[in-house]
Every structure is written in structure tokens, then in C-alpha cells.
Amino acid sequence: MMRRGPILLLLTALALSAGSALALARAPDLTEALRWIIRGTARTSLALFLLAFLAAPLQTLWPSVAATGLLRVRRWLGLSFALSHAVHGVAIIGLAQHAPALFWTLTNPGSIVSGGMAYGFILLMAATSWNGAARWRGGRPWRALHRTGLWFLWISFAVAFGKRVPVDPLYGVALGLLAVAGLLRLAAFCTKRRRKAEILAQG
């Protein structure tokens, strides 16, 4: 029987394929289809990212069977996020090639640079998400890469959704979820530091 992680990745791939096919079939033209895919994958990427971002903090703050299960598939959540954002990136490139004038009204060179950095982190994190790669790199460098990458992506999502709030207040919901997730991760970090200090004091 396949494990939950690979099943999650497979289901993500099927959902992304079905969603993209539906957009291409139902949109009035290719430009609009690409924009539908970009918006849809932005949402799926955010959901998968938040689950991966919160897996360890939830286990630290509120240990439970559910939190343990989430933590066990964290790697696959990250890989599913990488897949979703890869489709997102392909759709963006497609829009840039198919409708360059529209593309440049929606973005700017600064956003392209920061987006490229985000994709660089995603690629590195996905490539080092396997057990063998983690052992090869060593524990501390691997953790530093993934910790830095997670926070960079958190900032990227916050900026991307935050600047759209004046256009559509619903983006404020996503921004609020990111804020809560960031606070929970910081709270978990402080909790772990306090526990470690208490153990050292007792020893």
C-alpha cells in the first residue's frame, strides 16, 4: 500500500492537471485561461505552504495525533507545494509570452527578481527534501536552508497578497492566515527555547 505522502503528491498532481484542463476548456481565450490558472495555483500553493509551515509549530504548541500526522507528511506537503508553484510559474511564463503587454501591467522587474529568488529557494528545498540529501548536507546546514527558505516564502506570500488587498478585500483573509501562521511559528520557537532553558537549569 502506498504511503500517505506519495498519495498526497499524486492527488495534488491530479488536481492541478484537472484544474488546468478545466481552465483551458472553459475560459473564453488563452489569456484568461492562464490568468485563471495563475490565480488558482496561487491559492493551492498558499494552502499547501501554510500546512507545511505550521506542521512543526502545531506539534510543539499542541501535541496531538493530528499534529503528529501532519508533521509526518510535512515533506510531501512541501513537495506538493513545489509542484503547485511550478504550475503557477509555467502559467506566468505562458502569460508573459502570450500577452506581454498585459503581463507588464501586472508586474515589474522588482517582483520578477524577488519571485526568481523565491523559486530558487523552492528548488533547493525540494531537491534537499529527501532523506539521503538531508544526511549528505548535514543537519545544521539543511535546517538553516529550510528555515530561511520558509520565512522568505512567507514574506513573499505576504507581500504578494498584501498588495492586492486594496483591489479585493478577500485577499485580506489570506494575509490574516499568513499573519497567524507567522505568530504561531514564532510562539513555537520561543516555547522550544524556554523548554531547553528549563532542562539546562534542572541539569
Automatic annotation (TrEMBL):
Membrane-spanning residues where?
A: 47-71, 83-106, 112-132, 144-163, 169-188
Q: Does the keyword Signal apply?
A: yes
Its topology with respect to the membrane? Multi-pass membrane protein
Q: Does the keyword Transmembrane apply?
A: yes
Among InterPro entries, the record links this protein to: Fe3_Rdtase_TM_dom
Q: Which UniProt keywords apply?
A: Membrane, Signal, Transmembrane, Transmembrane helix
Q: Which GO terms describe its cellular component?
A: membrane
The UniProt entry, under Pfam families, shows: Ferric_reduct (PF01794)
According to the UniProt entry, where is the signal peptide?
1-23
- Superkingdom is Bacteria
Could you tell me which residue ranges the Ferric oxidoreductase domain spans?
Answer: 42-155
Major localization listed first in the record, in broad terms:
membrane
User: Where is the protein found, in the record's own terms?
Assistant: Membrane
The protein's name is: Ferric oxidoreductase domain-containing protein
